[in-house]
Amino acid sequence: MARPFARLLYAALAALLAGTPALSAELVMFEQAGCAWCKRWNEEIGPAYPNTDEGRIAPLRRVDINKPIPEDLSNIRVERFTPTFVLVENGQEIGRMRGYQGDEFFWFLLDEMLRKLEAKEAG
């Protein structure tokens, strides 16, 4: 239900930031081969995500948990449960979402995490 309002809020934020350096936030998706829920996310959300306001604020970064973790994410706790989505800004975790239970749940939790990011930016 809060999604349309949140989209307007994020669009306004994106417009305000258009003249400033890009946010260093990203949504890290910890995944692994054979993960059925990762596959479902890829089918239901993946193609659209980069075209959304949320995707512009926090671009998606995929990390395979069975490969070496990138050095810049070394202070982010990696779980064996996939998918796990971690909103990261400047190497610091802002929020975390474990699993994928459908598109509405994903967007709702992502909106909550992005509000934390916005509060941190304003704070």
Q: How much β-strand is present in the residues?
A: 15-25%
Question: Helicity range of the residues?
Answer: 25-40%
**Measured on Cα atoms, how large is the radius of gyration?**
14 Å
CATH topology: Glutaredoxin
Detailed description of the structure:
24% of the residues are buried. The two termini are 26 Å apart. The model is unreliable at 15-23 (pLDDT under 50). The protein has four helices and four strands. The protein has 123 residues and is α+β, with helices and mostly antiparallel strands. The chain has a single domain (24-122), classed as Glutaredoxin, CATH 3.40.30. It has helices at residues 3-17, 36-44, 53-57, 103-122, and strands at 25-31, 60-64, 84-89, 92-98. It has a four-stranded mixed β-sheet, covered by helices on one side.
